[in-house]
Design goal:
alpha/beta; ATP binding; globular; 9 helices; binds adenosine-5'-diphosphate; ATP hydrolysis activity; Rossmann fold; single chain
Amino acid sequence: MSIQVEGLSKTYGRQKAVDNISFQAVPGKILGFLGPNGAGKSTTMRMLTGYLLPTSGKSSLGGYDTSSQSLEMRRIMGYLPENTPLYTDMYVREFLTFVADTYQLSQPGIKVKDVIARVGLGDEQHKKIAMLSKGYKQRVGLAQAIIHDPEVLIMDEPTTGLDPNQLSDIRELIKTLGKNKTVVLSTHIMQEVEALCEQVVIINKGKIVADSSLIELKKIHKTDSLEDMFRMLTG
Ligand code: ADP
């Protein structure tokens, strides 16, 4: 179950937000999708998850075309958007039960209980989402993204707003998920890339400026510092 992106572009008015990009992601190798603010990361992720139609080009997830087969594709895909839209008037457990029902999961009670444990929401499960701290809201977002055990997982800045303890828990979870799923995540935290990602794609002004394994990338640019490399390629 892999991700294939071929010549994908998105134009807003006269601006090319994403400009003819191609890359692929495979299971077991977490792909870090990096780039400065405004580079086109979220736009790309929205196209990959079927929330935005490309101006040209195509992409597929697990063999499903993200434009024409988006319903089928969504069954095998989990998405954590940048600002997770959560029903903040709902209670954590109630919301996740609603998500499980939407996916028509068998044994929804067990799935909800299991995902609450996996993302570490046990102590907060009876609270209203609106009452949760940013870090815990993020965990609810992650829970809704993985509750149906998707084969492909796309996460837009999954660790934003987490404190150092939460950060380490969530990274551990992402690492575990990435062992057999196809995972693409965007982040501005270079240590996160070092800790999690085997593959790196860097986008700048809508175009891809690097696409290789982290090890290769360091070899090519003769530096161990991902930050230096990032500045060089996007500055
Ligand atoms: P990133 O996620 O890398 O910060 P985005 O994909 O959000 O970048 O944005 C890429 C470019 O497209 C930016 O210049 C942004 O201002 C522009 N953009 C994003 N969404 C829209 C929109 N709905 N309408 C017009 N321009 C947009």
